[in-house]
Amino acid sequence: MDTDVPAETGLHCRGLVKSYGKIEVLKSVDLNLEPGRVCALIGENGAGKSTFNSIIAGVVQPSGGSMWLDGAAYAPTSPSDAIDRGVALIHQEIRLLPGLSVAENLFLGRLPTRAGRIDRAGMEEQAREVLDSIGVRLDPRRPVRGLSMAQQQGIEIAKAILRRPNYVIFDEPTASLGESEAEHILGLVRSLRDAGTGVIYVSHRLDEVRAIADQVLCLRDGESVALWEDGAPKTQAMINAMVGREFTFGHHAPEPHRDQVVLKVEGAGRTGAFEDISFELHQGEILGIAGLVGAGRTDVVRAIAGADQLDRGRIEVEGREVRVSTPKGAMEAGISMVPEDRKGLGLNLDRTAAENITLPWERELTRFGTVMPGTVEGIGRDQKARFDIRGRMNLPVGSMSGGNQQKVLLAKWLVHDPRVFIVDEPTRGVDVGAKMAIYEILRQLAAAGIGVIVVSSELEEVLGLSHRILVMCEGRSSGILSRADATPERVMALAVGD
Amino acid sequence: MSQSKPNVAGDRTTAGPASAVLGRAAQAIPGPLIGLILVCAVFSFLSPYFLTTRNIFNIFSQVSEIGIMSVGAALVIITGGIDLSVGAVLALSVMVNAWFYRDFGIPFPLAMLAGLLVGTFVGFVNGILATYGRIQPFVATLATMSACTGLALYVTNGSPITGFPDHFSTLTRVRLLGIPLEMILMGAVFLAVAFWLNFRPTGRALYAIGGSEEVARLSGIHTRRVKVGVYSLAGFFAALAGLIVTSRLDSAQPTAGVNDLLSVIAVVVIGGASLAGGSGGMLGTFVGLMIIGVLQNGMALLNVSPNLQPVVIGGAIIVAVMLDRRTKS
């Protein structure tokens, strides 16, 4: 352990260690963050980023090592202790109360009072000020319910800034946002930095890291494996440091059979969500759907997969018109969808991986009308092998890492191969290693003749995987680009409606 | 509680050797099982009469009414709902049964069937309200509870009905191979539902629905249909329990079952189910039922004041749930 007292300013960590029992999740990590700088923290899931942040924010206490804050020893015992010392953590998950107003959420737990009553006017005034200062245009009196993810994320940030922290930790603030909303968050981080705040910024999106980081710290398996002091290096260098090996999108899936249309959507519309969507999906084709968050991408695929009702238009699978009013109906027509929100829509985290996988298929798995435990376990084993799922299939799926949960989710919908396979945000919150594996799975499905639709907020991902890309803007299709024509600039231009 | 899925581990071996059942149960529902063993040990020490075959059969007979209702309540709770109307449904079905038989001269078996149908129908209405009607189950079943309680009193203006066929009232006194009939009925209900919950796709779907209804729906399960079925089943079981009550008392009381609701929910919760849904099972419910039954029986044997008994039951709920939490985490 290093005992010299570092500089008068900045947040300094020396040899931080955290172990649970015999397992060391953080092994001697150092950090030097001066005020007015942005340190990006990168690494795969499970690399120790969250533990590291939690220690700095006082959520957990380190097993070893020491910290200094602006020249004084710093050992927060609780999050409120850390906040009092000027260190705020903005969680990745949004924790707002939907029934309360924006202002009430901002001041939760310390509502200002005047003459024994809540000072609403003063509170709303202050709320408006802080929201304006970060460029979030919201009426502080309206309830949080119904606000977009980006707006809610903005409130979370405003909440942290309200306490005027000197150091702010952002834990994947853009994980559930589209490109333009993400851009707004980055602007916010820049203005905080310019005001002299020290920022720790965790993200899986390396283009963002390149855009804002003054320094980059990379963790792998709880160890600090790389530190760049002067801005971010090339994306490839960061990826290599994170995974300890090369990362590429790899080869493209083989060309699809253009003469075989597997899915045809004509004039599809759902009131208030999207209108006039038409496209064809060919056998073995990967069709990307790009667009900003809120453009209606998810609504379109949900309606095709029977999760929502279609108000207008027709759907044909292999030349036969199908009516999909329920997810079951879509499955029977050969359409399966992996929904976007793994925890809320995709998996039941308390049940085992094997039970999750067999859930949609139980009726077909019965023998003499009964589902035998052995059958469920057997399918779990098969899918584990087929998709290289690491973890025990007979434990609650919530105990697996994000990447493995996502593989379980894919495996669930691929017990029987569908004709049309739809994936919505297939790699959200997944580390680089699992990403590569998931891309490979999608390519193999296409190679086997399945029509694949990929919805993603990560432009890189859509461009890297798809044969063609349908771009949406405000509920309408603004164009379909072939791979050769699809540059990031052209896709973005269509997405913003130019 | 969040990681519990006691029934799958537990009920799988119901047909296997007794030691295996106990082993599985100890793994799946450690808290309630320890509790049951504890109260049994205490009472067998305090009362020489407690551990006799006769008394054990007595306990089973006494709890059969609550037991059959608990099965339905457990199913509803596993889906994440709640049914407050079970006691009131029992009263209404009992009265309809007797009323049809006495005042309309309908043959007794048909009148019985009518009672069962009325119970099932109220459950069906509960299910429709809670799913297609988008009313919270607590509120929906509170409303039907009120309505059923009133109707049960209304049909005869509050007076009980007596004069059932002899063969009906002897049912609860008959023994088959020395075992009381109502115990056999309850056992059959528990076994059939345990099989359904663990081995039939629809039964297994209840856990998926209770865990996350949207995940279940996107997985192709007709969640609303299944839930309507579950509430109907809860109504049916309440009516079935009503038959036992009527037979035992040889009269149909419009206030029958009014005190049952709390016992029924206590049984399910002591048995390791979470009101949040997604966990619980027949083995746990059965152990919970036995805890309540043994406590009531034992306290009666020891001449504990009936007014004190609910206090002890309240304590048992807290202790069982705390033990369950502790041993599972």
Concise account of the structure shown:
The complex is a heterodimer of chains A (498) and B (329). Chain A is of the alpha/beta class and 498 residues long.
Polypeptide structure, described:
The complex is a heterodimer of chains A (about 500) and B (about 325). By secondary structure, chain A is an alpha/beta fold. Chain A contains 18 helices and 22 strands. Chain A is about 35% helix and about 25% strand. Chain A has a six-stranded mixed beta sheet with strand order 6-9-10-3-11-12, with helices on both faces. A six-stranded mixed beta sheet of chain A has the order 18-19-20-15-21-22, with helices on both faces. A four-stranded antiparallel beta sheet of chain A has the order 2-1-4-5, with helices on one face. In chain A, a hairpin with a 3-residue loop joins strand 13 and strand 14 (about 275-285). Chain B is an all-alpha fold and about 325 residues long. Chain B is built from 15 helices and four strands. Chain B has a two-stranded antiparallel ribbon with strand order 1-4. Chain B has a two-stranded antiparallel sheet with strand order 2-3. In chain B, helix 4 packs parallel to helix 9, helix 5 packs across helix 12 and helix 6 packs antiparallel against helix 12 (about 225-250). The model of chain B is unreliable at about 1-15 (pLDDT under 50). The interface of A and B includes residues 339, 345, 349 and 369 of A.
Strand elements of chain B, count: 4
Please, how many helices of chain A? 18
**Which regions of chain A have little confidence, pLDDT < 50, spanning 5+ residues?**
none
Order of adjacent strands in the largest pleated sheet of chain B: 1-4
Low-confidence stretches of chain B: 1-16
Largest interface: A-B, 30 and 27 residues
Proportion of residues in extended strands of chain A = 25-35%
Overall SS class of chain B: mainly alpha
> How many beta-strand elements of chain A?
22
Q: How widely separated are the two ends of chain B?
A: 8 Å
